[in-house]
Amino acid sequence: MDTSLTPEQDGVRRALRDLLESRCGPHELRAALDTPSGHDPALWTALAERLGLPGLALPETYGGVGCSVTELALACEETGRALAPSPLLATTVLAAPLIAALGTPAQREELLPRLASGALTAALAVDGTVLATALALTGGNGGDWAGGGRAGGVQARRTTDGWRLYGQADQVLDGHSAGLLVVAARTGGYTRPRTLLFLVPGDAAGVARARRTTVDATRPQGRVHLRDVDARLLGEEGADVTGALAETGDRAAAVLACEAVGAAGRALERTVEHVGRREQFGRPIGSFQAVKHRLADVYVEVQAARSAAYYAAWAAAQGERAGGLALAQALRAQRTASAEAIQFHGGLGFTWEHEAHLYFKRAAGDELLLGPVHRLRAHAAGTARLFEASGTREVRV
């Protein structure tokens, strides 16, 4: 593995950082959070038209840039650094890869160019409480997490002219605003239960959506309620849906690990700047040895997480899986860096006017959505069979 960035990768990162610094400052960020969608459409348009970010990891055949997941992960390190509110995670990291992997040629031809251009946004309609399970990050995804029977979620039934969906998915990333919903639904009843993915326009008859209040306002979520909605099956009936979700989950974990590292690194930068200015007893508090030691520990943890995230991004491009463990490391570093930022900023860090609490809420929200860290680690250890030789049956990480 070559850890140095290519000129193209470095160029994408620099261009993205310049754009976000000019278009996603503290005032622009808060203004975007107050909109119904929770996003800034002008920023999304700029990301699409100037950098091609929505289609960065999509094939050129469908209007994408043709880069690998590595470039997308490196780009997301910059969006994480700025806490940029955009449909990038839901559309580009989760929904588009599933359509590319499972969609029929006609579905890919219809949808991927619009997703790559940023003209269409999409959301994976899976209840946020089981998203990590659906993506096989904290355990196997072969159960009834999508619904079925009395388990809630979304159910599908076949009709003479297609499929109908009914049920509800809560805490769906961008579920309240996405133009296209990729809905995971359970079908087959009790005898032959299975999970399939369906395509539903966001404005289809019978779809009711509402934005939810979340811990992390920069990661907007919505409730999606389906009342006997007409839907198209994504791909063919015999497709390996759980396998595609697991593959997408590992790639998404690598991307999100880089994003979390970006947020953790920025929180640490702001904290170092603050302790260099804030004076106590006639000297900057950053000059005290205890402060130096604590921030040095945070720096080491962030750098270790960055190494793990970069490796996972590289491995995903090679067809290997290391995303879950890298995500666990990154989420831990993000939590540590943001918590220390709150502590060293004192009362100022808790106020709405300061951005320190935004990084803290991002860390808490990410772990609620994709963790917790100990389950990510335990599943990664179990998948790698680290404890089989010693006969250990229970994994506690």
From TrEMBL:
Pfam families: Acyl-CoA_dh_1 (PF00441), Acyl-CoA_dh_N (PF02771). Keywords: FAD, Flavoprotein, Oxidoreductase. Coiled coil: none annotated. Residues 253-372 form the Acyl-CoA dehydrogenase/oxidase C-terminal domain. The keyword Oxidoreductase applies. InterPro entries: Acyl-CoA_Oxase/DH_mid-dom_sf, AcylCo_DH-like_C, AcylCo_DH/oxidase_C, AcylCoA_DH/ox_N, AcylCoA_DH/ox_N_sf, AcylCoA_DH/oxidase_NM_dom_sf. Gene3D superfamilies: Acyl-CoA dehydrogenase/oxidase, N-terminal domain, Butyryl-CoA Dehydrogenase, subunit A, domain 2, Butyryl-CoA Dehydrogenase, subunit A, domain 3. Its cofactor is FAD. Signal peptide: none annotated. The keyword Flavoprotein applies. Residues 6-118 form the Acyl-CoA dehydrogenase/oxidase N-terminal domain. Belongs to the acyl-CoA dehydrogenase family. This is Acyl-CoA/acyl-ACP dehydrogenase. It comes from Streptomyces nigra.
